[in-house]
Amino acid sequence: MNNKKKNIVLFTALFILLSISIISYINFSGYQPKILKKIEDVKGAKSISDINLLYPDKAETISSDEIGNIYQTSYRIEKPRSSIESFYKNIFTDLDWEIESISEENNSSVYEYKSKDKIAKIISKEEATNTEGNEKIYTLVGIEISDRK
User: Fold this and answer.
1) Sheet with 118-131: strands ordered across
2) Check: CATH 3.30.310 for 48-147?
3) Vertex 95: Cα angle to 75 and 126 (nearest 5)
4) How many CB atoms lie within 10 A of CB 125?
């Protein structure tokens, strides 16, 4: 008799579980979400590509951000600092930007360029790494471009 009660309880539990599964499937298959309207005009901050800032070949971007009218980026490259400085000097002089200030200390430099409406600060620091007797020279570069005040 005890075995018969267990079978009835087991059968009832399986029946309830199967019923709940069938009801859930029916409810889910009939679900229709609201149809969203297509947004025709997306507005936001100007894209970073509007700045048209060039990077040297093989630059590894570390970070890039745009907050209001300030664009900041940093990268690492396996080139000497002097190469990066001349790279940006050529770019900014071709764009008719003027050098506002230069400061150099140890293995780092800060170049500030200005145009009619913007100012750019290029910060570079040279580092040498020695891995298993193989020395490589890397330069960390930080760039900030903002509107002139």
Assistant:
1) 60-67, 70-77, 134-147, 118-131, 108-114, 98-105
2) yes
3) 30
4) 16
Q: For residue range 56-78, list pLDDT tens digits in order.
A: 888 888 888 888 888 888 999 99
SS3 state of residue 15: helix
Domain boundaries, the chain: 48-147
**pLDDT tens-digit profile of 89-115?**
988 888 888 999 999 988 899 999 998
Rounded CA separation 95/115 (Å): 9
The reported pTM is 0.61
CA distance 106 to 64: 26
